[in-house]
């Protein structure tokens, strides 16, 4: 059906085999929930519109990205494969609870609200970073964003927690928040000047700056460094703990760092993997 | 004599068959279908009531949230109203252009209609929300066209624009919602208005002109009122469709809108089923109200056209006999 | 009252037939018999129930009271264990196929040619071979004088031609009985003759027919018996000359003189026009 | 003599006015409109060609990407085809139910139509994608209804279900797309099929039954072929609308779909204008093809109904005189 | 050829009028004059251009050649500096308002009552006060015998009543000239009389009229002059008796004898029907 057409439009760091060979740990494999064990694969919900963490490869099917490489390695420790299922972002956590997905891996920043809902295993530290048009023509200062038009992907931590705090300090001179359903639209809004600035997870911002071909620049420091977490059902704490173990082993073997550096994100590496930190 | 006659009558009455009281044919297949459907309905009801995921109290709470109500009033109802106004006005203009004898006007109207009827609204709104600022980086200017070329030729500098609108303001938020959906609706209304105008008998136009009316007068006082009969019913449908299509504004995005607001609550509370359900209930209610309004309008616009509302009952009965054979 | 009660030799026997639409009693006990090879003309003012009576015979409506037999079968019902049971759809269809009906508005199938209209029922109801059905259909079209119009669609035919195709279509099932409901009243005056002509020859060939018509001339010439109905009952019946010229009942006389009067009035306008030009030099 | 006659004729000819060669009225307003529109068109063209943001080579490249073509064929065209099949079949069944004399069937059909016509498709698809697994956590089972209650009463254990479908598989991806849009389309097609059946003259049904056809036969051979004339044109419109509505599958989401794929390229390359443009071009092309197909179908189904295609030209000319007064 | 060329006293003067639709030349040089207070009946076979000629006078079509004057004005054009200029829409509307036209298919405005139909033009074209317009409209409806139908919508009126409202509507602008295009040919025979009656009394009051009609009787009784057209030219004209009874031209004679023949044929059917019942006892 798809014999015609090309696959020429590259993103970055196109698919390559995981950088290190990962060995299966039988002890961990034993701790897999029964459903995964019998299926031999983990069904993972992911919103594949969040480059470079998770996005579609040029074949339009394969989900690739830092999250994918890292968690594929984790799954390999358990001796199972990962079935990456593209989803909208909002229903992933509910989908994990409802059994639609076994897990959620989609750059979820760990926060209290999410921890109440599900188990979260920390695996990466991302901060929030701001970006604006190259040369910062609007003199954007993240610490004084009142009155600015700020683009953000909707339902992210930035929209739901970061901006409301800033908004509260602004009084009458409100931040004009533009929540887009995809990060690409938010980025485009800044490139086009529709928004004065955007804020997103630091990996995303640095990827956007790189992809924009000199149209964007990052402003300010990375702040609010907080861990990303894998989303696991509340009643699967044993499995969550096993994942922590797997991460630790990967770190020890060096394949953890390798997965991150493939995407230029080794800055976000952590070592204190934990359940619900 | 009388006795004999009576006796004869009695006899005849007995012999003459009276009212028919026959055993009807049993339609087993039909009743089986009813039984199956009834069970399915019971299961649905059972699910709606007892499945905890529906959480009806929470649904009501969501429906009662200020931003949800606000989104309903502004982003859904007000936008529907404004886009329909824009759509009807634009549609009539496009229809008149389409029926013009001037080929330029005619083709422009055709091309506009073709374009906006061919591109899905969600694609249109996504592009408006994300790309308009990129396409018009200097905004949209009212002034002398191609001024930069002219100024260049004349060896001058500066510009000849007296009003520049920021494309980002123009095509985003509430304004963008109304402009985008309105522009799209105009294309659909154009076809409807055209059909309406063409449906009026040519003789009406001629009779009006024969008594000395101008073309404009006969259009406004004679043709359009009659065209209304044809235009109003599909316009009602368009309004209902537009009300539902305001849910697409999530792609623009317009945040002060029903579907966006319930999604926000869903993602905040992780109660997505009851949150979406709140929107569904609102849509059901509003559509139902609009449908009633539409049937009223349809009746209102039949005025003076005699008993065009023929009883569909006889027809329906035949249809039913036909449809449910065996 | 057994089912086999037309051993009497009547083809149609209607006894105490009544029909109500809701509160409205349209037929109030009609008795009528039609012998084989007999032509009966039904006459009566508008609303007297003539169409309803024909529709009852052909089961387009359901009886409210009374019985109708056609041939040796009770129409619409079967008697089992002393009770009437409504016939199954299949059985009703079979009974209908023994009766041909021609409507006022011809009701040809517009998406089929004249030939296809005539072939439709033999092929799809009788399961006749296509070739044979075509052969017979062409013969029937010849009989109604339309062999050259076989490939025309109804929309391409005049009203008179359409009505003749409709007659051929009804004849194609070789019915024992033909019902005609004002077959010429939707036709322009100049087309009436051709349809009446076809009906006249059918009558000559011995087709049993019940004809609702206002064409008094046709009735007088062709009918074996004329039945006059009014208000849902048969008012009087008899030979054409008896009923049309020497009616016993006042209602019959009133009706007929109104028919006559209308014809005279209609004639007047045309006669006057002709008279205006009487002096026209040739 | 002859000379005199000729002279007289010549004289008369001179006195008798001949062909009229008059100066037409100048419609300045109309020409102004044409001028303005022409300038606007030139500006649009100028922008389309010279604005670097449009990047036409990139648009073509996007259009030629394998996943984009795949999305077009599968997610857009194949889904359209399958949903329309589902919709037409479902619609006819619903229409027949609606025209039934059985009140249960009638109200179920009404309620189904009411529900699916009232809820926006994007909301429907969002709920299907996000919530179906929550609503049917144990999947959808075929078996004895209310079996758990019965088993409980009878003091047994186990279940009486012979086939359980996973709600997540059933209502997501390709299957979910076809089910969701198809179920919605059936509601719209039901109204169309119903109108079509009712549009056929009752006499046709009666004439068919009079020659001995069963209700089913007369429905299939006589009524439906004639109803087609009324059903086909709006079904063509529905198909076009459905093709466009496949873009809503981004809410499910169905990844193998045109709009999702161009968005993915946009999000990967940040070239969103040309990426979306690729989709717009595809939509324009396909809609245009479908429109041509539809007009062919419309002509095809007029067969045997005489010259119903009256010349709209005379009417259009009047309309135009009316519309463009001054 | 000056614009002021009807000082001759004619109300209408048409000189060498021709009209083509594309290749098809429908009128081929028609000359005609109508005096004030004169009634002219136009007769001719179908397609001879009668309707087209009326439509040219009222500018529903544009002249291809020749000139038409009504009163002292050239219709459709103004002469300036020796050249013809098309009149502006406003000017055309003004000229039309001086001429009343009644169509074959009455073309009443269906969304207005009879009264509103008649008031429409006085109020919205002449800018007459509503009260006054209503007063006059009621008088006109009285004149056509419909004062009791003022509040009815066209759909609630019979054909004859609708046509009479259409006449009142045309009269409401107090036109100098009335044009009638087969005003009775869409009516059932029994309704023709009432419309002709209204027209007869208009003629008596001295209204200038051009009437296209096939009602030979009316023409003979009411017309001052009858004009016979065929193939886009005037074949002959003269007094009614001259043209209708002693036509000079063969074409006129052929046409009239065909009219006569058709009337006779139409009469025949009705006469026969009446004759069938002739023996009917009273
Ligand atoms: N389907 C129906 N529902 C209700 N009333 C009906 C129906 N069909 C007929 N009627 C009524 O039954 C009466 C007799 O109708 P019928 O058509 O049999 O008269 P008819 O003698 O054929 O008259 P006509 O000469 O006008 O055809 C009329 O009053 C009519 O209104
Ligand atoms: N708008 C038009 N376009 C093209 N041809 C036309 C038009 N109007 C009339 N004609 C043609 O002009 C010819 C004369 O038509 P017109 O209606 O004037 O005849 P008529 O004498 O009024 O006939 P009738 O008695 O049938 O009304 C006909 O051949 C007709 O086909
Ligand atoms: Mg009848
Ligand atoms: Mg004419």
Automatic annotation (TrEMBL), chains B, D:
InterPro entries (UniProt xref): ArtM/GltK/GlnP/TcyL/YhdX-like, MetI-like, MetI-like_sf
Keyword Signal: no
Broad class of the protein's primary localization: membrane
PROSITE patterns: ABC_TM1
Annotated TM spans: 31-56, 76-97, 118-140, 160-181, 248-266, 272-293
Keywords (A to Z) from UniProt: Amino-acid transport, Membrane, Transmembrane, Transmembrane helix, Transport
Domain ABC transmembrane type-1, chain residue ranges per copy: 73-291
Top-level lineage group: Bacteria
Record localization: Cell membrane; Membrane
Membrane topology: Multi-pass membrane protein
UniProt entry tagged with the keyword Nucleus: no
Family the UniProt entry places it in: Belongs to the binding-protein-dependent transport system permease family.
Name of the protein this chain belongs to: Polar amino acid transport system permease protein
Automatic annotation (TrEMBL), chains C, E:
SUPFAM superfamilies: P-loop containing nucleoside triphosphate hydrolases
Topology with respect to the bilayer: Peripheral membrane protein
Domain ABC transporter: 12-256
Keywords for the protein's UniProt record, in alphabetical order: ATP-binding, Cell membrane, Membrane, Nucleotide-binding, Transport
Transmembrane regions: none
Any GO MF annotation of the entry: ATP binding
Compartment(s) of residence: Cell membrane
Keyword presence, Kinase: no
Lineage: Bacteria, Bacillati, Actinomycetota, Actinomycetes, Propionibacteriales
Keyword Transmembrane helix: no
Protein source organism: Microlunatus panaciterrae
Superkingdom of source: Bacteria
Protein name per its UniProtKB record: Polar amino acid transport system ATP-binding protein
